[in-house]
């Protein structure tokens, strides 16, 4: 069994598409985080909902994706960049699991903001894990981009 897990949350499919490319390259298990209440599909309404949740430190209940991670050694964690940090469903996943002695690799999609605080916020929730440099994608993934990044971080 491959001991790699790719966990992600994606509202508009950008992060999902990146997660699929990582899974294809690594052979890892793909796991989508699904909160109990969906965000609005209208961008402006969703932005208001998310901004409010982040400011309150809200962590939604996950109805899918929160299964145990014990059998995995390497965990890729994907999120859209929402107001310079991780999406609330990703925060829910992070606080509900123990990442001790695991390798954690962040990835994100964004509209121009890069990682901002995402890598730091994931590292705060995984203090006893090894954090490898992540990848932040604005728009579509260029051919070979994921493969080159995995080689750069020494993923085997």
UniProtKB/TrEMBL annotation:
Transmembrane segments: none annotated. GO terms for molecular function: FMN binding; oxidoreductase activity, acting on NAD(P)H. InterPro entries: Flavodoxin/NO_synth, Flavoprotein-like_sf. Residues 4-152 form the Flavodoxin-like domain. PANTHER family: EXPORTED PROTEIN-RELATED, FLAVODOXIN-LIKE DOMAIN-CONTAINING PROTEIN. This is Flavodoxin. It comes from Oxobacter pfennigii. The lineage of its organism: Bacteria, Bacillati, Bacillota, Clostridia, Eubacteriales.
């Amino acid at each position: 069994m491959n001991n790699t897990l790719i966990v992600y949350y994606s509202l508009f499919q950008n992060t999902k598409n990146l997660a699929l490319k990582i899974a294809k390259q690594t052979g890892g298990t793909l796991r989508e985080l699904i909160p109990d209440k969906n965000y609005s599909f209208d961008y402006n309404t969703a932005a208001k909902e998310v901004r409010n949740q982040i400011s309150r430190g809200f962590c939604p209940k996950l109805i899918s994706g929160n299964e145990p991670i014990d059998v995995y050694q390497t965990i890729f964690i994907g999120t859209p960049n929402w107001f310079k940090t991780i999406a609330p469903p990703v925060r829910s996943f992070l606080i509900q699991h123990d990442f001790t002695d695991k390798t954690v690799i962040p990835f994100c999609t964004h509209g121009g903001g890069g990682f901002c605080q995402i890598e730091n916020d994931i590292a705060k929730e995984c203090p006893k894990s090894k954090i490898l440099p992540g990848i932040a994608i604005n728009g579509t993934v260029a051919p070979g981009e994921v493969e080159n990044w995995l080689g750069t971080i020494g993923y085997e």
